[in-house]
Write a structure and sequence with these properties.
2 domains, 7 helices, mainly alpha
Length: about 150
């Protein structure tokens, strides 16, 4: 069954109809309810600023390369912890691949786009920790603006 976003009486009615139809066909449903909102534009911007920063500072790849590394090392573990369906599918199809293959798959696999606001915040925090351990200090946009204003 596809993901449903319920934000009106009409979408609720459609969802209830879909659930009835699925239950009639299968007599078993597993439903995950989430009340969190999708990640914000500011969160998306923050990640892309950091991917560019990493490319400029480390110079071993472009922004996409660092996005893939970050998704693999920071996003995948977070989703595996918090999303059983993602964990099952990832473990069945991707976990067995080589590191290089996983990095390539990260170009196409939705990871951060599956995250809600809270998850994206945790992803960005993990990203900061991950890259700081490798010598790169990533600042949040608000912190960056404060430093820029002080100069």
């Amino acid at each position: 069954m596809a993901q449903h976003i319920i934000n009106s009486d009409a979408s609720l009615s459609k969802f209830i109809g879909d659930i009835r139809q699925e239950y009639a066909a299968h007599k078993f449903l597993r439903i995950r309810v989430s009340t969190g909102k999708d990640r914000t534009a500011k969160q998306n911007k923050q990640g892309h600023v950091w991917y560019e920063q990493l490319a400029q500072e480390l110079r071993e790849g472009d922004a996409l390369h660092y996005k893939c590394i970050s998704k693999l090392h920071c996003g995948v573990p977070l989703l595996r912890e918090e999303n059983e369906e993602f964990k099952e599918k990832y473990d069945k199809t991707i976990r067995c691949l080589t590191y290089e293959q996983k990095i390539t798959v990260m170009e196409f696999l939705p990871v951060t786009s599956l995250m809600e606001v809270g998850q994206k915040t945790r992803y960005l925090q993990r990203m900061q920790e991950f890259w700081e351990q490798r010598g790169v200090v990533l600042m949040f946009l608000d912190d960056f603006e404060a430093v820029k204003d002080a100069i």
